[in-house]
């Protein structure tokens, strides 16, 4: 019996804007297979020295160390030119991982509504 398993699930990154601030809406798995795609998108904003980027993680079902690493690199690159990255709407499992590795000290995390007009801090 031959079976083929494909565990690689694509990360979809949609770009939008709210009140002049870029929003990256992520869905899928933020893992070693997706890190380069997110890195490529973020480099565009870094090169333009965009002051703020919102990363909406409501559709991210999984994050591994490679995903954490690319988020950390993004934050560092933005801090180098006084910009910042915020994470909004992480699912509970992703939020727990981010909190367990103290990512909330590096990246502010919030819950927000659909149009990003209201932000509530996550503890």
Automatic annotation (TrEMBL):
**Signal peptide segment:** none
- PROSITE patterns per the record? STAS
The record's annotation in InterPro entries points to: Anti-sigma_ant, STAS_dom, STAS_dom_sf
- A Pfam family cross-referenced in the UniProt record is STAS
Q: Where is the STAS domain?
A: 11-123
List the NCBIfam families hit by this protein, alphabetically.
ant_ant_sig (TIGR00377)
For this chain, the family text in UniProt reads: Belongs to the anti-sigma-factor antagonist family.
Q: What PANTHER family has UniProt attached to this entry?
A: ANTI-SIGMA FACTOR ANTAGONIST TM_1081-RELATED-RELATED
| UniProt protein name | Anti-sigma factor antagonist
Q: Which organism is it from?
A: Candidatus Nitronereus thalassa
């Amino acid at each position: 019996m031959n079976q083929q398993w494909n565990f690689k699930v694509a990360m979809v990154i949609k770009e939008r804007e709210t009140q002049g601030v870029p929003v990256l809406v992520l869905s899928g798995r933020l893992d070693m297979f997706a890190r380069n795609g997110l890195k490529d998108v973020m480099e565009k904003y870094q090169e333009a020295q965009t002051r703020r980027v919102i990363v909406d993680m409501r559709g991210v079902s999984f994050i591994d160390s490679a995903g954490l690493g690319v988020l950390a690199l993004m934050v560092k690159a933005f801090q180098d030119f006084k910009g910042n990255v915020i994470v909004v709407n992480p699912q509970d499992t992703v939020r727990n991982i981010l909190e367990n590795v103290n990512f909330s000290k590096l990246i502010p995390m919030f819950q927000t509504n659909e149009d990003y007009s209201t932000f509530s801090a996550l503890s």
